[in-house]
């Protein structure tokens, strides 16, 4: 992968998002995005798609779209049957309408704008590299991906062959991490992030924060387990170090979020279904700690949830930090997904009155 | 959480909403709506302490502010804010209007019972017992009481003896109503206003739901 070296613009917190023809969204705007943004909505109303829209526009090449597709179960298999770029990417488009193209853009507090646009282009033709296909011609419409950033406009090139994906002219990505059920427990990524911190002698804060909630954890280290670096914990009363995932899935998840935040200064961490696996009594203190780390790292946290318990645990924190919070609610009505934005003040008032906001 | 709390917090599914001061008021409005088969309303009341440490009528602003976030808000066509007239009905109306204004996103009505114009949800303010009469929900219930003459004389003598009318009407009404409920209710003398409309309490409830003072409220609710 070719990455051109350049100094990226310093972004300052995403404030609004515009989506056209992406997944379930025809045309929507999510305004009022704050440092801590909570996304609610029924199943299938577009919560995950909203995070994916941010993630894709923050990316630096088409590869990020493939990863987002893989998280949805559409794992890309580079096989002999692969014949069309539009068939690989069609699930990105609203109602699979590749011809309509798609556009996602977000703006930050400094009015910096970042935009990704994908258009179908008849002049670009994909030819399958596959000797086993019998038809004389299997040409298909190509897709062009454009990124517009404060540093300039870029058109990364992608070449899909039966053996690999080649991407060139890659854009500097927006610092962004997406945590979901598949990426939370990624041992290599978590070990890498911890290792980066440790190299800079900055791991102490993370360990102390972890101990604040889970005093049984005495220390963390990276050990090689079956050729792969993995995070291990030294636990009180246990005479050998244990892989963190074995100690507790909740501890592992909290640490994964903490490491993502500290690894993404001036960026954003997106979390799908944040509440899973966490003990209810720890939710408020956990959030207090995550908020502190976000502020210290100038990082933004955008999370989806279905949990009333989680929202209730946030209520006292939102009440004291109204300006830092907002709520986005996705809704599916008459075949279209919409996004409604609410201020932290309105969100706090709703939680105070015990209203159903999911 | 009882049925009034559930109705107060759940997704909005009806086109109209009555917001009243507390659970006792909510129980009354729910009963009036059900008894008169007015089905297009949900009933709610402010929850928790306000910034000033008070409940009830001071919580309308925060309620309206948070209401915009509540699921189903887009289905809402009209909001009735029902509050006590208290000592000065005109001042009470102005206080509600200030809270509506501060909540943001709502038109403010120009007089009690008037419906705002413009985008949904429209809004109106209903003063209890009446737009021009000082008092509260308890005053309304005293006006709508059905008592036989003997009981009536007895209570009047008792109230006079205790000089209850020396208190402000908001206080004296509460004292009088509590006394009558306690005297008339053999099973639950301390029955609260949230429970007085229940089926079990029906035979001890001296308040006449068909009284003209209550019929005025019914007519107003039926107009939506």
**Overall pLDDT score of chain B:** 93
Largest sheet of chain B: 4 strands, parallel
Strand content of chain A: 25-35%
Largest interface: A-B, 17 and 18 residues
Helix content percent band of chain A: 25-40%
Number of strands of chain B: 4
Radius of gyration of chain A: 21 Å
Poorly predicted runs of chain A are 1-7, 79-83
Secondary structure blueprint with pairings:
The complex is a heterodimer of chains A (358) and B (224).
Chain A: E1 14-22, E2 25-30, E3 36-41, H1 47-58, H2 63-71, H3 85-89, E4 102-108, E5 113-126, E6 140-149, E7 152-154, E8 157-160, E9 165-168, E10 176-179, H4 187-199, H5 203-213, E11 217-225, E12 228-235, E13 242-243, H6 244-247, H7 249-262, E14 268-271, H8 283-296, E15 300-304, H9 308-320, E16 325-333, E17 336-343, H10 344-352
Parallel strand pairs in A: 3-15, 3-16, 10-14, 14-15
Antiparallel strand pairs in A: 1-2, 1-4, 4-5, 5-6, 6-7, 8-9, 11-12, 12-13, 16-17
Chain B: H1 3-9, E1 16-19, H2 23-35, E2 41-44, H3 60-67, E3 78-84, H4 89-103, E4 122-128, H5 137-143, H6 149-161, H7 169-184, H8 212-222
Parallel strand pairs in B: 1-2, 1-3, 3-4
Helix pairs in contact in B: 3-4, 5-7
What does this structure look like?
The complex is a heterodimer of chains A (358) and B (224). Chain A is α+β, with helices and mostly antiparallel strands. Chain A is built from 10 helices and 17 strands. Chain A has helices spanning 47-58, 63-71, 85-89, 187-199, 203-213, 244-247, 249-262, 283-296, 308-320, 344-352, and strands at residues 14-22, 25-30, 36-41, 102-108, 113-126, 140-149, 152-154, 157-160, 165-168, 176-179, 217-225, 228-235, 242-243, 268-271, 300-304, 325-333, 336-343. In chain A, the strands form 4 sheets. In chain A, strands 2-1-4-5-6-7 form a 6-stranded antiparallel β-sheet, covered by helices on one side. In chain A, helix 4 crosses helix 7, helix 7 packs parallel to helix 8 (283-296) and helix 9 (308-320) packs across helix 10 (344-352). The radius of gyration of chain A is 21 Å and the shape is globular. Chain A starts with 13 loop residues before the first strand and ends in a 6-residue tail after the last helix. Residues 1-7 and 79-83 of chain A have low confidence and may be disordered. A 4-stranded parallel β-sheet of chain B has the order 2-1-3-4, with helices on both faces. In chain B, strand 3, helix 4 (89-103) and strand 4 (122-128) form a beta-alpha-beta unit. With 224 residues, chain B is of the alpha/beta class. Chains A and B meet through helix 10 of A and helix 1 and helix 3 of B.
């Amino acid at each position: 992968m070719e990455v051109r070296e350049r100094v990226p613009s310093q972004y300052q917190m995403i404030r609004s998002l515009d989506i056209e023809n992406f997944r379930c969204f025809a045309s929507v705007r999510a305004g009022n995005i704050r440092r801590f943004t909570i996304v609610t909505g029924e199943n299938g109303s577009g919560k995950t798609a909203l995070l994916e829209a941010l993630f894709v526009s923050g990316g630096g090449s088409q590869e990020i779209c493939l990863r987002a597709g893989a998280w949805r179960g559409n794992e890309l298999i580079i096989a002999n049957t692969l014949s069309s770029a539009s068939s690989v990417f069609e699930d990105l488009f609203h109602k699979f309408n590749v011809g309509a193209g798609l556009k996602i853009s977000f703006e930050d507090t400094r009015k910096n704008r970042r935009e990704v646009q994908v258009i179908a282009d008849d002049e670009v033709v994909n030819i399958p590299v596959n000797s086993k296909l019998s038809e004389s011609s299997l040409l298909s419409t190509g897709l062009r991906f454009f990124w517009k950033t404060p540093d300039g406009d870029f058109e990364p090139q992608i070449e899909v062959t039966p053996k690999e994906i080649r991407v060139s002219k890659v854009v500097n990505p927006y610092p962004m991490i997406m945590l979901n059920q598949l990426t939370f427990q990624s041992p290599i990524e978590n070990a890498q992030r911890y290792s980066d911190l440790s190299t800079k002698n900055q791991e102490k804060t993370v360990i102390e924060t972890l101990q604040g909630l889970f005093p049984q954890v005495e220390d963390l280290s990276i050990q090689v387990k079956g050729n792969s670096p993995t995070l291990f914990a030294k636990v009180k009363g246990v005479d050998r170090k244990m892989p963190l995932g074995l100690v507790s899935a909740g501890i592992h998840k909290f640490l994964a979020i903490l490491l993502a935040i500290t690894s993404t200064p001036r960026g954003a961490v997106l979390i799908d279904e944040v509440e899973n696996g966490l003990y209810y009594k720890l939710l408020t203190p956990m959030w207090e700690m995550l908020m502190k780390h976000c502020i210290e790292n100038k990082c933004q946290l955008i999370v989806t949830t279905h949990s009333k318990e989680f929202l209730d645990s946030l209520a006292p924190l939102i009440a004291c930090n109204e300006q830092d919070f907002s709520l986005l609610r996705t809704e599916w009505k008459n075949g279209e997904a919409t996004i409604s934005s609410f201020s932290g003040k309105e969100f706090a008032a709703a939680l105070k009155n015990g209203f159903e906001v999911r | 959480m009882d049925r009034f709390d559930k109705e107060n917090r759940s997704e909005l599914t009806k086109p109209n909403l009555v917001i009243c001061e507390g659970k006792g008021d909510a129980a009354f409005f729910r009963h009036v709506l059900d008894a008169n088969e007015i089905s297009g309303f949900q009933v709610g009341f402010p929850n928790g302490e306000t910034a000033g440490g008070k409940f009830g009528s001071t919580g309308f602003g925060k309620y309206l502010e948070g209401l915009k976030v509540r699921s189903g808000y887009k289905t809402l066509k009209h909001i009735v804010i029902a509050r006590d007239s208290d000592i000065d009905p005109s001042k009470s109306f102005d206080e509600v209007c200030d809270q509506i204004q501060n909540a943001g996103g709502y038109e403010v009505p120009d007089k009690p019972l008037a419906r705002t114009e413009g985008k949904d949800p429209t809004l109106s303010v209903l003063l209890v017992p009446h737009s021009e009469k000082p008092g509260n929900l308890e005053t309304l219930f005293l006006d709508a009481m059905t008592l036989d003459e003997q009981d009536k004389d007895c209570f009047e003598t008792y109230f006079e003896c205790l000089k209850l009318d020396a208190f402000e009407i908001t206080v004296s009404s509460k004292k009088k109503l509590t006394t009558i409920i306690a005297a008339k209710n053999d099973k639950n003398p301390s029955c609260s206003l949230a429970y007085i409309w229940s089926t079990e309490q029906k035979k001890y409830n001296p308040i006449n739901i068909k009284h003209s003072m209550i019929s005025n409220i019914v007519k107003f609710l039926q107009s939506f």
